Amino acid sequence: MGMKNHARAADAELFVDGGDCADMKALKKVLRHHLSYLADPKGDETHWMISVDLSRQHWKPTPEEEQELAILVNSEKKLIWGRILLPENERDPIFSELEDDADWKERFSDGNTTLIRQNLRSGQNFYTRGNVVILGDVNPGAEVVAGGSILVVGALRGMAHAGRFGDEQKIVAALKMQPIQIRIAEHITRPPDGEREERLSPEIAKIKNNRVIIETMHI
Amino acid sequence: MKGKVLVVTSGKGGVGKTTTTANLGTALAMKEQKVVLVDTDIGLRNLDVVMGLENRIVFDIVDVVNGDCKLNQALIRDKRFEGMYLLPAAQTRDKTAVSPHQMKILTEELKKEFDYVLIDCPAGIERGFKNAIAGADQAVVVATPEVSSIRDADRIIGLLESAGLKNSRLIINRMRPQMVHMGDMMDIDDITDILAIDLLGVVPEDEAIVVSTNRGEPAVLSRTSKAGEAYLRICSRIMGEDVPFVPLDEPNSFFRRMRRAFRMAR
C-alpha cells in the first residue's frame, strides 16, 4: 500500500466542453490535441487536472464511449486527475437506522491508499485515483475526490466524492458525518436542509438499491 | 533586541482587524512594551484614524520601501505612549506598490527596534494578504461568530499553514452572550471545534468601540469598556501570562442545550 503524507492539489485545470464538439470523434480530437500539449517535455512541474464536461452536447455517448474517454483522459502522466462530468442525478440520501451489514474495510482493498495527516480547510482540495484516509477534519469549502473510498478520521463537514470513475462499490466513511455534499460514483446527495440531530457514532455512506444510504458504521 | 512580528488577519472584511490591532498595540504599550503598528492596507488606510494619528502623517510605508525616506522618518510616535509607533499605509497607491520580499526586509528591520511588531492585514487573500504575512512570526486570526466569517477564517488558517505559519491563534470578536444564550448565535465551542486552533480570547460586542474608533481613542484606554477589558486580557496572554478565561454568560441552561441539539445551519 503506497503512503503519502501531503495533500496534493492540481496546479492548473484544463476544461473541455463536450457542447463545443459536434460528435464523439470531434471531442476525441480536441482531447488528443490538449493531451499532446501536456506531454510536451519542458521540465515543467505543473500538475494538471483535466475535466471533460459531457452534460451539454446534443449527442449522448454510449457507456463504452464514456469508458473510452475516461481512459484517454487519464492516460497522461502529468495529469494528477482527469474526470468526466456527466449530467448528475441528485437525490436526498436515506438516513438509515440500521448498522452497515457489509465489512467496510473491504472497500479499501484495492488501489493505493493515501494518508493525509492534516485538516483540510476551506479552499484546500485533494484528488487521488486511489483510496484516501484523512487523519483530521474536512471543513466546509474543502473537497476530497477519490477514485476509491474515503475514510475521514475526524469530522466530514465539506464535500467528499468516492468512486469518481463510476465504481458504485466505493464508500465515504467519517467519525462525524456532517457533509455539505456526498457523491459516490455518479450519485450526488446532500443532507436535507435544516437541522439534523447530531449523531455520536461514526457513519458510512454507500450505494444501496441505486440510492445513497447512510448507515451506522460497525467498527 | 529581537522582537516578535504578529500579523492580525481574518480573510473577511469588517470583523475588527484594525480595531484589534489598535487595541492590542495600545495594551502592549500600556504594559511598557515597545511596539510598532504597521498598516498594510495600502489604498484603504484606517489604522491611523482609529489611533487618532491621522494628522501627523508625512511619509508612509511605500515611501520607506522605495527608499524615498528613512524608516524612522515615517514612524509616527503615539501621542499617549512613548514606546508606541505607527507606520501608516499609503492612501493613493495600491497593494502592488509593496512586495512580500520588501515586507520581509522591513519587518526584519523593525524587529531590531521593537518588542512587538503588529501588522494590520487587509481583507482578502491576494497581494495585500501575502505582503502582510511575509515577515510575520505568528498570526492572530480574528473572526466573528458568523458562518461566513468562520469559513473565511478557516481558509486563511489553511493559507497561513501552507505559508509556514503554524500555531495561529484565534480572537473571537463581537460575541453577544445574550444571543448565544438564546441559541441564536454560534458559541465558542462551535467555533473552536471547526477552526481547531488555540483561542487567544473572546471580545464581546460593545457599543463603546464605535465611539472609541470615531474618537481615535482605543477602547483599552477606557476603564469602563467591556471590549477594552477583553483586549487587555488578550494582551497579557500574548505576553505569555496565564490569564483565566472569564465566562461571558451564565452557565448553560437547559433551554440553550435544547436549542443546541437542533443546531444552526453550518
Write the layout of secondary structure elements.
The complex is a heterodimer of chains A (219) and B (266).
Chain A lengths: L11 E6 L6 H16 L8 E6 L9 H11 L5 E7 L3 E2 L3 E6 L13 E4 L8 E4 L2 E4 L8 E4 L3 E7 L2 E4 L9 E6 L3 E4 L2 E3 L13 E6 L2 E6 L3
Parallel strand pairs in A: 1-2, 2-3, 4-14, 5-16, 6-8, 7-9, 8-10, 9-11, 10-12, 11-13
Antiparallel strand pairs in A: 12-15, 13-14, 15-16
Helix pairs in contact in A: 1-2
Chain B lengths: L3 E6 L7 H14 L4 E5 L7 H4 L10 H5 L5 H4 L1 E2 L6 E4 L12 H14 L2 E5 L6 H8 L3 E6 L3 H16 L6 E7 L1 H5 L6 H8 L2 E7 L2 H9 L10 H13 L15 H8 L5
Parallel strand pairs in B: 1-5, 1-6, 2-4, 2-5, 6-7, 7-8
Antiparallel strand pairs in B: 3-4
In short:
The complex is a heterodimer of chains A (219) and B (266). Chain A is mainly β.
List the keywords.
heterodimer; A: 219 residues; 2 domains; seven-stranded mixed beta sheet; 12% helix; disordered N terminus; B: 266 residues; alpha/beta; Rossmann fold; 8 strands
Outline the structure in words.
The complex is a heterodimer of chains A (219) and B (266). By secondary structure, chain A is mostly beta strands. Chain A has 2 domains: 1-110, no CATH class; 111-216, Pectate Lyase C-like. Chain A is 12% helix and 36% strand. In chain A, helix 1 (24-39) runs parallel beside helix 2. Chain A is globular and about 50 Å long. Chain B is an alpha/beta fold and 266 residues long. Chain B has a single domain (4-265), classed as 3-Layer(aba) Sandwich (Rossmann fold), CATH 3.40.50.300. Helix content of chain B is 41%, strand content 16%. Chain B has 12 helices and 8 strands. Chain B has helices spanning 17-30, 47-50, 61-65, 71-74, 100-113, 127-134, 147-162, 177-181, 188-195, 207-215, 226-238, 254-261; strands at 4-9, 35-39, 76-77, 84-87, 116-120, 138-143, 169-175, 198-204. In chain B, strands 3-4-2-5-1-6-7-8 form an 8-stranded mixed beta sheet, with helices on both faces. The N and C termini of chain B lie far apart (45 Å). The model of chain B has no long low-confidence stretch (mean pLDDT 92). Classes of the chains: A mainly beta (219), B alpha/beta (266). Chain A binds chain B through residues 118-124, 137, 139-141, 155, 157, 178, 193-195, 197-198, and chain B through 151-152, 154-155, 157-159, 161, 193-194, 196, 261-266.
